[in-house]
Amino acid sequence: MKKAIFETDFKLDEIKPEIGKTYPIFGVLNDLEISGSRIQARINSNIVADLIVTDDAQIKVLVSRIFDTGIFFVEIKEISEDGIVKGFCSTIIFGKKQVLEC
User: Fold this and answer.
1) Domains in the chain: how many in total?
2) For residue 30, what are the CA distances in angstroms to 10, 36, 61?
3) Measuring CA to CA, how many Å separate 13 from each of 10, 21, 32?
4) Which CATH number characterizes residue 64's domain?
5) Residue 24 — pLDDT band, cuts 50, 70, 90?
6) Is residue 10 part of a domain?
7) What is the CA 38 to chain-centroid distance, rounded?
């Protein structure tokens, strides 16, 4: 059984994200900047994504999930020379909360 695990052909390829394409990104919601109806999320400290949120309840959920992991579907709009990615986040999937609130 041990031998079979080590004989698998598991490979990890590095890709360069392309502008205009949407990618699922596993990461941490580091920060939210809320300015009127404009919301920007900082993901993994190097991705800045605009969000469209129309409901105050959704904003409260986002604020409560800062520093939680999730999958962020981000359409890439710009990649700076220092590695900062700017884009539009269309969907966020958070997992089950790991902390009990008292």
Assistant:
1) 1
2) 31, 20, 14
3) 10, 18, 31
4) 2.40.50.140
5) very high
6) no
7) 17
